[in-house]
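[job 0412] stage=complex_fold ligand=zinc ion status=START
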Amino acid sequence: MLLNNRSKNLYQEVILDHNKNPRNYSQPERFSHFAKGNNPLCGDKLDLFLLLNDEKIVEEIGFIGDGCAISKASASIMTTVVKGKHIDEVRKLFDGFHNMAVGNISASEDPALRRLRVFEGVKDLPARVKCATLAWHTLDAALNNKEIISTE
Ligand code: ZN
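[job 0412] stage=complex_fold status=DONE, emitting structure tokens
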């Protein structure tokens, strides 16, 4: 229980840090995929940009947006996790993250979720699940060309 509280505090610190200093918080100079995400329940909004190279690897990723600490931190951490990964791996991570956020699986069941487990606690906060998963749904939409911008 003690360890539990300690890791909870640590995770909270990670979230607050990413909220305060979001990583990859910019529009990349070049991008191949784009999507807008919106969570009206909380007022979270973000624009997500990514550049896939010929091998379908995420070469660049950036976001701009506004919202609660959880949505912003989730977008920030997501960009650091998916950068440099192949699109198939990114889709697997999206499934894993979603399953973890709604409580279907535990983060410890999948080593790939190690850096995302700070959001595992949202499964007990139903209103926050959408905040945590917004960036991932936006990424999925971008990858599925729901809103695509060609740089050519
Ligand atoms: Zn939110």
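The domain at 23-150 is CATH 3.90.1010.10 (Sufe protein. Chain: A).
[job 0412] exit 0
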